[in-house]
What does this fold into?
Amino acid sequence: QGPGVNTEFILYVSVLQTNRCEPIDTLATASFCQLERQQDRPIAGNINVCPKRLRGDRNGIDFDRLVSTIKHEILHTWVFSSGLFAFFRDSNGKPFTERDPATGWPKIYDEKLQIYTPNENVLKQIVRKNWKTRGGLVDKIILMLVTPRVQAVVREHFRCSTLEGAELENQGNVGTALTHWEKRLFEHEIMTGTYTQESVISNLTLALLEDSGWYDVSYEYGKPLLWGRNLGCDFVKTSCKQWIDSKLEKKQNPYPFCISPPKPNPSKRICDYTYDKIVMCNLVEYSTALPFEYQIFDSLPNITDENELARFGGHVMLADYCPYNQELSYKNSNRDSRCYRSENQPPNKENYALEKYSSQSKCFDHGSIWEQYIDQCHRKRRVIPQAAGCYEFECISYKGFYVYIGKEKYLCEYQGQNLTIITAEYDSVYVGTIICPDCQIICGSLNNFQCPSEINKNHVQRQQQQQSDIRLSVQNFCTRSYEYNQSSMSDKTNQLHIILQTIFLFSICLYIRKGF
It folds into this structure.
């Protein structure tokens, strides 16, 4: 009741444990409430945050994920809802979907979905013939948003001029299917159906806002969507099985998908393509066979049982069970694997590879399993084979960049350079290797920075060998480190004796002066 509020949009926010909160991983839900009379634009919406997911314990959702989720839900109230598609208008303000003259509403109502059916100029059904699965070829029915700007953005993104539009999610419940971008194709876009790693509001979602006819957008604010970029029609129009098989036949990396041997060892950790985080292939074995159309593998290393192969797929169902390298979240803390977050720094006793998380850190792949020498280097143990770590770096024009590990720094001069790491920390000596990434990826965004020109790699390798022979003998390093620690302890002990002696003499002076 009352005159209302003079504003463009009202957002009602509630914190209630409703039935829609029941899926254990649901953080929030959203819906639009009311449409404007003339142009059908949403003018009110509701977000409900599920309180059980906001508990302040160590297993609570982290702040970044919460903010991303709230942005996601706001976009649902503004534009990304299957119930709004039939109300979209073209650039001239004319409805895409034909209206009933008597009511002014779209003509067709879908009783099953409980939404008005949009015109094919907005939502279109496409049949992909010869969709490859483990059991053979099938017809794959998909639904796509095909509005003008959305179509233009996805064609440019994938470099596929015949792409009809942007595929919508086909899995999940009523609140997921048809109301998100397809996870398999747009993995870290903010409007996919589940949060798996740091998300972005890309030009794709901005294009949808513009194509609704209700909003003007500034595309310079869109964040880069790296997933699937420039991979072509073969990637965007075929199954991930087709893509993986074709790459393996050519002995190529099936990026952005992955195949990490699930047995006998778990997936190893590697750097992602931005070198901003540590990722791991999310290939897992399910307790039962995957649905027929999502079965991927004809063979896997160390798997001989045909029935067992049908149970392997990616951990994210919405990505059609396609396995891909995914950011890590640690169960017993709020830590994840983004190198640039200082909050992710592990405790010293768990810092097995001497990592350093900060705004000046990047991910570096390990070239070998690291070893730790303890008890004055008399005992050796293998560090957990995580195979990648986060370390601080410093870019030096024309030379490359230094990587700081423990008390040492190491110069990366060319891509693929294998650096031997030996450093003392926490009363131990650590030995391992790191592989230098492309200088342009690490330092190329800096103003006026110049990566080194082509250098004589043989010279660098000889120099490394000389360094190894001269000062990287593990036993010599251990001996020096132990002697240094002993000397340091001795110095500290002497200093303590001097301090105590001074206090004692000062006390005697006071005692004498007071005449006791």
